[in-house]
Amino acid sequence: MVNDVADQTAALNQPTGLPRLLPLVPGVPEDLRTHLARYGRPPLGDPGRLINAVEQAGLTGRGGAAFPVYRKLAIVARARGRKVIVANGAESEPASGKDGLLLRAAPNLVLDGLQLAAEAIGAGEAYLYLHPGVSPEILRALSQRAAAGLDRVSVTITEAPPRFLAGQESALVNRLGGGPAVPTFTPPRVTEAGLRGAPTLVQNVETLAHVALIARYGPRWFRALGTADEPGTMLTTVHTEHGAQIIEAEIGVPLRTLISQDTDVQAVLIGGFHGAWLPAAALGTLALSNSALNSHQAALGAGVIAALPADRCGLAEAARVVRYLAAESAGQCGPCLNGLPRMAAALAELAGRGHRKQTRADLERWAGLVTGRGACNHPDGTVRFVRSTLTVFAAEIGLHARGHCSATDRTPFLPLPDRMPLTEDDWT
Amino acid sequence: MTGTTAFWYASRATGVVALLLLTAVLVLGILVNRQGRLPGLPRFAVTSLHRNISLLAVAFITVHVLTAVLDTYVSIPLVSGVIPFASGYERLWLGLGAISFDLMLAMIITSLVRGHLNRILWRAIHLLAYLCWPVAFAHSIGSSRDLQHGWLLDLAIGCALVVAAAVLWRLASAARQLPRAARVAAILAQHGPHASRQASDRQAQERISR
After folding, report:
1. Given an 8 Å threshold on Cβ–Cβ distance, is A334 in contact with B201?
2. Contact: A326, B197; criterion CB under 8 Å
């Protein structure tokens, strides 16, 4: 409850303002000693309270889907028998760096959240799923915590392949089970039958970090920042012509405040490669929240915000991205396997000079055909990106049709890996 | 032609058409499974054809069963359309017909609610098609004197040959199938010029890997 006694007693030494998750000294990772000095020990031993507190706090998943966290917690808590919890740190989005940074800078907050959530749902097995580069910091944190006797459930680290879909829930469960990180059809959901059939709770690492704070300071504290519908803060990865920056922002702040004023922006990509482009004009009016963005067919996703500089070509950027997304199809569902490469080729044609007359119509038709036809939302997310490209860069498409391009700088802007998967090993 | 012989003829005719439709459904299903195409049709149209013809076949089979029951020359109880071996007349052959009809209903019902079903369960039930067609074929030949000679026999043999060829093609196609991980690269290579990523993408990637 909001008026919980524990909530009020905690109010005595609650931190205020920003940042909540990131280190107080920017760029200096917090080891266990600084972590405990800043937040105190995780309040384990009161598992009945956490799910209620998370519900009151209104915390939503920070991995991209913004699903209410308490509901997933409650579903797995209700299940009987062996249960599994996974902290998902394998942010698959090449343009997102926030989970990697959080794991390096505040590993103990994530691990606190993992232990608290494990206790709340009664999980006997805990996993941390992440990309290889982060492991040393986590291993150090785990050994320090073991020495301090902080953790009740031992944590197994599993490394994710560098695939766009590797962090998708069912792909993650397949990988933990020893198979390739490819999605499977639902049902069953992983909360019902996940790792080796056990009900499995998969939460993004940032989500778990918020859980660790809600457990300490209560839902009222959590709601002190953010909006009534979307409380709290979120980690964003903001790309401008000056480079990428990870910012912990209060939900609901004007988007413009995240992008330095001296940049000349022509369009903004919100929500990453499964997200949507918005015209630069939207920057002035929109807030960092799903309720504000939904009316523009956009969503925050995992918090990627890329401000495309005025001197780049949005079509060329979009064509590179869709090519990448097509290459990252798991190759299981026909519409995705066959449709995405066609869409990528058509977009590349639009990004070139003087495209065929029917190419744009083809692209819209294929977009309709692949939507809703995959085991995961890869085709749907790709279509969202493509459709917004066609809308926001409509004028640029006309320019290219006549053999021109408004860009003066041809350097790629959005970050993309340079290697596509070719064998099964690339998926494990 | 009296009223009752009209039922008899209608039952024969719908039975023959149903056999042709079931053959088409099986062949189209194999095409869908192997992601094959028909000349002049996009891939998704093959899926729609497979679905719609399967529903059409069930409509024909329903008429086929009802007219056989309504025909009073021999007595066939209505329940024998779905309950195997419930008919005194041609117990074995009509029983096979009921079994194949039940299998069809199982496949269609599980397909209609596929979004709520476990994919492995749906697939296991759908594999029953390879049992359903031969059983329906045996029912056709066994219970109909017409199909045992003349051009209707030729038609039946034609259907069997088409199904045998489609199944063999399916097995051969599965044997030479690319491993899952290699499929995407193969299809990407067919579309568009830059099959391999440009090295310049690396610069942009470095901005974020810190």
Report:
1. no
2. no
